[in-house]
Amino acid sequence: MSNEQALEVIEASKDSVGNSGAQFYFQPETLAKGKEHGLDGFRWYVLGRGGVLGNVESPVVAAAFGYFNPALVDKMWTSAREIMKPRAAGTSYFECCAEFGRARLGDVEGLDAYNAAAEQVIAAADPAGLSLFAGFAAEDKVDDSLGRAMQNTAVLRELRGSAHIMAVLASGLSAAQAHAIKRPDDVQTFGYENVDVPDNGAALHEAAEALTSQMLVPSYAGLDAEAGSAIVNTSAAILAAVT
Length: 243
Description:
Number of domains: 1
Radius of gyration: 17 Å
Structural class: mainly alpha
Order of helices and strands: HHHHHHHHHHHH
Largest sheet: none
Helix content: 55-70%
Low-confidence stretches: none
Strand content: under 5%
Number of helices: 12
């Protein structure tokens, strides 16, 4: 498809992919798996999501996550990896993603076509600078279509999220400022007391969103029209099934 058509697919699917790809994080069954490993919900989230990066120091995880106060990441990551090895946590967390898909996506049609299209995008994406996406993309996926669809959705979410951090900085905002603009009610949850936002912050964030979509065009441009429709329509059906 043309770059313009690829951009249309990206824009039409960004919210459904972004929202559904994170749904498994704090589900009861995901939290229960963390408890089996001796980890509370937030530590399980930080170690599980960041575990694809390996047994690294906390600043590496904070850089990949982008929006969290590094001091909060350090507290969660450092204490969690004393309990469980990060790579094992990353693998187990990704399995939770598959289990969530198996439990929720049974009535969603077109998952095989969606998986093929999503994996084409993932394979075409240049991982340079996109560390968290690269880590998730390198994880082995399950074979069944339900679990795999949820895993592919999570990877697509990390693709846009990792690119967005770069776009935010290029647009003149800090990651903390972008977070405060997009999620003003969650500033303290992410470890900040307050964040000063410039007067033109909303415009800068809008520019960062547009730049993010443009950065993803090469990853989506190899799709044909049918595959593009599979991304748009099935990601919307997935979101409806998991929320």
